[in-house]
Amino acid sequence: MPAMPTQLCVCGAQYDAEVASEVKAHEQRHDAWTSGLAVPALPSDLVVSRLEETEVLMVTAGASPEQRQRAAAAAQRALQDTPFHTPAYTVEDPDPDVRIFLARQSGRCIGLAVLRPRARWGWWSWDDYDDELRPSTAVAPLTTWAVDLIWTLPRAQQRGLAQGLLEVAASIVDQPIPSFGWRRPFTPSGEAFVRRLCPEGFWIPA
Length: 206
Ligand SMILES: CC(C)(COP(=O)(O)OP(=O)(O)OC[C@H]1O[C@@H](n2cnc3c(N)ncnc32)[C@H](O)[C@@H]1OP(=O)(O)O)[C@@H](O)C(=O)NCCC(=O)NCCS
Ligand SMILES: [Zn+2]
Prior knowledge:
The chain is of the alpha+beta class. It has helices at residues 20-35, 65-79, 126-130, 161-173, 188-197, and strands at residues 6-8, 14-16, 37-38, 47-51, 54-60, 99-105, 108-125, 143-152, 181-182, 201-205.
């Protein structure tokens, strides 16, 4: 029996290159993967800010099913660019306080930030982190807004988009970025980014 002409693409699609309908479906999926998922304007859009050509949409636990669905799809896309196993947000997410920020440019989602209130477990200075010393944990039990995930589309990176998205989030949750908590483990790009935004060190959520 001849081998199946199945292709496995970097976008995660597996398809039969000899079946026109599968090739077409793959083209659409691949385009969304490289250029961003389509996030057309909806009456329920909550546009909270604009960064030049980019709109920032906020999605909360009380948002419409379509809004939560697109936030979950964006989290699924972002997951493909990390070594993590679970998306930062799904439509079944039970957290009533989760805040999702989506960056939209030309009708495509090019960035995502997922924030939640969390207890502060410890503070890790970069000096201690670099010396492989443990974080200091003798802190009062305070809550903080914590970044569960920050992601930008590869072709939109290194242009200030992730920082801009978090600046919008920081103004809405009314907490400065250097006092945010950060979910670990960091990816290499995530660590470089947090070092730039939080030059002293970072809070670790419980
Ligand atoms: C981390 C990530 C969100 C950064 O997004 P971005 O849009 O490129 O970030 P910005 O352009 O806003 O960068 C802000 C600052 O961080 C620095 N920075 C961002 N990514 C960096 C990298 N990979 N290496 C070194 N510095 C980086 C920028 O140079 C900039 O500093 P500057 O003001 O001195 O120029 C992006 O690389 C990404 O989506 N990575 C894949 C997903 C991921 O790993 N998320 C983090 C999980 S812990
Ligand atoms: Zn592909």
